[in-house]
Amino acid sequence: MPPGDTKEKILDEAERLFADHGFSDTSLRDITAGAGVNLAAVNYHFGSKEELIKAVFERRVGPLNRQRLEILDRLETSSEPPALAEVVDAFIDPPLRICCEGSPIFMRLFGQTYSHPDANLTRIMVEQFREVAFRFGRAIHRAVPHLDEHDVFWRLVFMVGSMAHSLALTEMVPKIAGEQHRIESVEEFKAHLIPFLVAGLSAPATPRQASAKTTDRGGNR
Amino acid sequence: MPPGDTKEKILDEAERLFADHGFSDTSLRDITAGAGVNLAAVNYHFGSKEELIKAVFERRVGPLNRQRLEILDRLETSSEPPALAEVVDAFIDPPLRICCEGSPIFMRLFGQTYSHPDANLTRIMVEQFREVAFRFGRAIHRAVPHLDEHDVFWRLVFMVGSMAHSLALTEMVPKIAGEQHRIESVEEFKAHLIPFLVAGLSAPATPRQASAKTTDRGGNR
DNA sequence: GTACGATTCAAACAAACGTTTGATGGAGGC
DNA sequence: GCCTCCATCAAACGTTTGTTTGAATCGTAC
């Protein structure tokens, strides 16, 4: 057996099972049995289950964000400022390709990470995304200068949400909505998502008075 | 102790802990200890942990979707067809009020449900949302008639994603992005979200050649 | 061939889990 | 009084969990 092979097999199987069943509902026995390795191999190679979770996470999110930033770099050196659609594409293309062409369960793994209580994992996640959020926030702001920073921040959140949610659902769609809504390729996905995001991001700015605090004209309660 | 009190206390504490730690990382001992009731009370009142999860879920999602449909009913009897912004508001206002005024962790509970492997819970969730998805899909289609059904479906998914994701994050935002982006009221939230969604939903239709990949379902209309 | 560090293995560990049990307490009908 | 139904309780059940252990095995340099 080649060296390093056991670690990779564990990571692969763990990623699959974590995405399908969640971190806590996946036992090390499930993982090691599926990977065809010994139970103790996880603690030998990774130290603990929590460290394995981090390793599974970092193996994907690091290259993903690096790729996003590379594309954005190229964009910003060739045209200044880049068009909004290009910035959006730079943001959503890398994860879309991972999901549609590589591991379709990748985004469900993210969903698990969000709801995971471990503070360490949350911290890692925030750190991993800090630069991406900053760089893309600035790029979007330049492409849509009529917004203020507050607007840009929240629209970035909205964009992440619609992308992550729809990616996490793509696998389930045929089951819950029928075959006619299945999406087959990255290009088809982008053809739907990009017009939505570009239009949403470049919508008129938030009305000023609503930005102010405690506007309680809801009349509820 | 008033009758029915124990059940409510269990549901309240379970909702809180489920949202914070996930279903599997919350033990019945945590729940019953936090609620101040006996461990066996859960199995006595609900039958099993899985049934408790369903009960926690259904207590919220039933009234929520009923409220959405009531608002949409009123809209469709007063003006035909309702404006897009009104339809969007009818969809996002009920969950926003629950999150901002009632239990802020409500949306994280949804996130947990998505990633839960149990097929029964998924089925319940799909059934609970079927009518809402159908009715709101039709209302949006009438307000934005230049889209086809395929477009409407996916934009509905995008809308749900941006709403759910941003709501699930609102609590964390001050920690990861600083106080300046905190949102205080439902109206402030809507002032950001509605313009984004209305613009995104009414964006130009998906280009034909990208949409008609494998299924050519009558591209003209 | 021998020695040695790195890896794999079967076995066992204590802890935590969901669930079940049988006893206990109290309220209402007869 | 007595009985019944419903709810609560402490205790225990059998599993499953992550982790540890110590021996066995592999690859490689001497």
What can you see in these coordinates?
Two copies of one chain form a homodimer. Chain A is an all-alpha fold. Chain A has two domains: 1-47, Homeodomain-like (Arc Repressor Mutant, subunit A), CATH 1.10.10; 57-204, Orthogonal Bundle (Tetracycline Repressor, domain 2). The first copy, chain A, is built from eleven helices and no strands. The first copy, chain A, has helices spanning 5-21, 28-35, 41-45, 49-78, 84-102, 106-115, 119-143, 149-170, 173-177, 186-201, 208-211. The first copy, chain A, is globular and about 60 Å long. Residues 210-221 of chain A have low confidence and may be disordered. Chains A and B meet through helix 6, helix 8 and helix 10 of A and helix 6, helix 8 and helix 10 of B.
Write the layout of secondary structure elements.
The structure is a homodimer of 221-residue chains.
Chain A: H1 5-21, H2 28-35, H3 41-45, H4 49-78, H5 84-102, H6 106-115, H7 119-143, H8 149-170, H9 173-177, H10 186-201, H11 208-211
Chain A binds a DNA duplex (30 and 30 nucleotides) through residues 1, 3, 6, 27-29, 37-45, 48-49.
